[in-house]
């Protein structure tokens, strides 16, 4: 004899449900007191209700046969009241085949006590004014290209280490209020017109040779 397994319809452990429209009376932690037909119900926010209810909201409430009540959705809220989307635990916003855009006229804030991580094939930031404030800042890149109008750097100490440094400018001005030291294997200064050096005291010292060559040499 062949026996076919009987398929039983899954029954809800909570039985029947009734939906009502009410007004949030108060919020007490995870409990929401909702006024429905002159009665106060104690409900919890359903997992599908992303917008966190607040006092005065018109909400849709489901009453289960077990006696439990859940706020399914916020139907209406004061236009001047702020809104909060609350997600318990880890959460992800995904668009597998499209873009995700966040639009705001007043501003966007991202606040966390831990780490913020961004991974992208390409990142573009456009702003009329930008500021970065950090106790420690590290930038690591194989190549950096910058085009700016004016650069101003104020630092207590500035250290630069490079295999090669090339600078090209129309005019260069340097002001050193104390001491200027230069150490090099060899130094070559070339001026097309005039080389002028002024000092209260001038000392030129060489171990082997000092050479001064010119059509005219004036001393004194």
UniProtKB/TrEMBL annotation:
Pfam families: DUF3540 (PF12059)
Database matches in InterPro entries: DUF3540
Name recorded for this polypeptide: DUF3540 domain-containing protein
Organism: Polyangium jinanense
């Amino acid at each position: 004899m062949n026996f076919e397994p009987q398929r039983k319809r899954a029954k809800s452990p909570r039985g029947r449900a009734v939906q009502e429209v009410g007004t949030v009376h108060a919020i007490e932690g995870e409990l929401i007191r909702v006024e429905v037909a002159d009665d106060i119900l104690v409900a919890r926010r359903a997992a599908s209700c992303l917008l966190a209810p607040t006092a005065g909201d018109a909400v849709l409430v489901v009453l289960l046969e077990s006696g439990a009540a859940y706020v399914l959705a916020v139907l209406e809220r004061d236009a001047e009241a702020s809104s909060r989307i609350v997600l318990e635990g880890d959460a992800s916003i995904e668009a597998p085949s499209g873009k995700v855009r966040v639009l705001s006229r007043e501003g966007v804030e991202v606040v966390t006590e831990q780490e913020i991580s961004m991974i992208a094939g390409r990142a573009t930031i456009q702003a009329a004014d930008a500021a970065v404030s950090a106790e420690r800042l590290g930038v690591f890149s194989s190549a950096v290209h910058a085009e700016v109008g004016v650069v101003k750097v104020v630092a207590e100490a500035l250290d630069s280490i490079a295999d090669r440094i090339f600078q090209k400018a129309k005019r260069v001005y340097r002001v050193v209020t104390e001491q200027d030291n230069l150490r090099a294997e060899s130094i070559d200064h070339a001026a097309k017109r005039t080389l002028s050096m002024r000092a209260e005291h001038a000392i030129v010292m060489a171990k082997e040779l000092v050479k001064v060559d010119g059509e005219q040499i004036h001393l004194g």
